[in-house]
Amino acid sequence: MNKILIRNAMILAVDAAHGTQPFAGDILVDNGLIAAIGPNLIPPDGARIIDGRDRLVMPGLINAHTHSSETFFRGRYEGMPLEIWLLYAYPLLMNDPIGKRLLYLRSLLLAMESLRNGVTTLCDDFFDPPAHDLDRLGTVFRAYEDAGIRANVSSAAMNIHTLDALPFAREVTPAELQNLLDFGPPMTTDAYVDFCKSAFDSLHGRAGRVNFMIAPSAPQRCTPDLMMACMELAVAKRVPFHTHVLETRTQAITGHELHGKSLIAYMKDLGLLRRNTTIAHSVWVSDEDMSLMGDAGVSVAHNAISNQKLGAGIAPVRRLLDLGVTLGLGTDGVSSNDTARIFDVMRVAGLIHAVSGPDYEKWVTADEVLRMATIGGAKTAMLEHVTGSLEVGKSADLVILNLRSYPFMPFNDAAKHLVYSENGSSIEKVMVAGRIVMEEGRLTTVDEAAVFAELAELVPAWLQEHAELERRNSVFVPVMAEIHRRASLAELPLYRYQGDFPSKSV
Questions:
Q1: 431: which strand partners?
Q2: What is the side-by-side strand order in the sheet with 61-66?
Q3: Where is the Amidohydrolase-related domain (predicted)?
Q4: What is the CATH number of domain 4-59+392-443?
Q5: pLDDT averaged over the chain?
Q6: Which residue spans within 258-352 are E strands per DSSP?
Q7: Which residues contact 483 (CB under 8 A, 6 or more apart)?
Q8: How many CA atoms lie within 13 A of 474 on its CB side?
Q9: For 162-274, where are the E strands, in sequence order?
Q10: pLDDT confidence bin for 275, thresholds 50/70/90
């Protein structure tokens, strides 16, 4: 692999020595790794020299939680809480799985948009009903391998009937609608573990950067034996146990309805709070929940935008940080966010937590948000030894931005510019594992025009089929609306904290 020397740049390493304070210097990339960082480095023979004057070099951004299965639903939905939105984005009544070519293009499009906007690593919990298929999983791996992005990939696992994973569902769902939801025998734990082991054997580590992770959908959607087997395998393979917990108030009610305790306490009882545990959302958590999470070294993927679009609430990020929980940033799926840009999530995360309380000294800072988007996100993916900061020996996953641009003019503080001003427009180059994958406004790994042309040709017919699926599933809207209504009125035995203080006892 070619050697690259970035000379005379402003370097934002986000490492232990410098944090988010930039310094001047050079970066030498050799064989995909950062070989040296410092002043006046001597270029090896044959090295490509990149002029870093008026340029900021920073770690590639980490998307700690997304769903490639939503990529074709950009700009399609609004004004729905999660439980209703799921009927359309993840229908109960399903058609045949999306065709393999569209499955590939759907994943490729997400990777392309991510790389263009400085995301060098994504964690994709894609949905591919009705069964887990190694060949289809391999199609997603191939898309990420071809795009040149780093990724953790899994297809969400669940084996509890939808109506048994929601409070009030059986009592408010008419019998004729319940009869429509015959999904056949649930997936067994042994079958899913066998699938995961096959994925590790045949796909994990493809191209040195596309990995398999374990993704049980949520504790209310999976049997205890499935969840515990998933954790055992995740620990053995040193990969994330990636799951959704307490995204909505309905899910907060679910834990107490089904188990007599919060879903976090339930996970603690099952031994599911570990260093490997990465929780998407963590909005409706109590102080007790957060203490358990911090003590266990759990990570949270904070989806600041999607939580607002779906009306889920605001995660208590300051309290999570103070209690020792690692935070990363996720876009969630493109349907509940409408972009794959982590820069957008950074800006929202930097702004929205100021409403959490009057103690402005505890508001989330730009430095903290930048760490979430880089090294924090790497930790949620269990890749902090590989990426997330610019350090000798780590993979050369980095972004080069032009400081002679509107978001940085005039220049004051790097972290604040990146969080509050930058939107990706200043990006000149993106590198993953030492390979330049985006340069001068063009992806180097993919023919974007050809991909767009193929999408324009194939996706409209698929979306027409999906529109019919939406119509069929709309019969469940009154049911989900009633569940949502009842959950909003039900009492919770614990304080629900918004930021740094409880909003009320509910």
A1: 398, 436
A2: 61-66, 119-126, 150-155, 210-212
A3: 56-437
A4: 2.30.40.10
A5: 95
A6: 277-281, 299-302, 326-329
A7: 83, 166, 167, 168, 169, 172, 250
A8: 7
A9: 210-212, 241-245
A10: very high
**For residues 45, 47, 49 and 50, what is the CA-based torsion angle, rounded to 10 degrees?**
-160
What are the pLDDT digits (tens) for 38-68?
999 999 999 999 999 999 999 999 999 999 9
- Break the chain into its structural domains and give their ranges: 4-59+392-443, 63-354
Single-letter amino acid, residue 471: R
pLDDT in tens, 119-148: 999 999 999 877 899 999 999 999 999 999
Note whether 115 and 437 are within 8 A (CB). Answer: yes
Angle, CA of 243, 248 and 252, to the nearest 5°: 85
Domain with residues 63-354, CATH architecture: Alpha-Beta Barrel (3.20)
Q: What is the mean pLDDT of residues 297-321?
A: 97
Q: Which residue has the tokens 């089929």?
A: 465
How many other CB atoms are found less than 10 A from the CB of residue 6?
Answer: 25
Q: In whole angstroms, give the CA distance from residue 170 to residue 154.
A: 30
Pairwise CA distance, residues 430 & 397, whole Å: 8
How far from chain centre, in Å, is Cα 466?
24
Give the number of other CB atoms < 10 A from CB of residue 43.
Answer: 14
Both structure tokens of 105: 């293009």
Q: Rounded to whole angstroms, how far apart are CA atoms 207 and 142?
A: 10
Beta strands in 373-426 (DSSP E): 398-402
Q: Can you tell me which residue has the tokens 């209703």? A: 84
- Are 370 and 346 spatial neighbours (Cβ–Cβ below 8 Å)? yes
Two structure tokens written together for 467: 């529109």
Q: Is the pTM of this model over 0.85?
A: yes
At residue 118, φ and ψ (nearest 5 deg) are: 85, 5
Read off the tokens for 300: 């949270």
Distance CA 302, CA 279 (A): 9
Write the pLDDT tens digit of every residue in 324-379. Answer: 999 999 999 999 999 999 999 999 999 999 887 788 999 999 999 999 999 999 99
Whose structure tokens read 């939107």? 423
Return the structure tokens found at 369: 């948000």
Alpha carbon distance 334, 337 (integer Å): 5
Task: Tell me the C-alpha distance between 266 and 106, whole Å.
Answer: 35
Please give the pLDDT value at position 494: 59
Phi then psi for residue 138, to 5 deg, are -65, -30
Beta bridge mates, 55: 402
Summarize pLDDT for 378-436 with one digit per residue, the tens: 999 999 999 999 999 999 999 999 999 999 999 999 999 999 999 999 999 999 999 99
Q: Pairing relation of β-strands 299-302 and 326-329?
A: parallel
Residue 295 CB contacts under 8 Å (≥ 6 apart), including other chains: 273, 324
**Listed residue (200, 218, 190) closest to 86, CA to CA:** 218
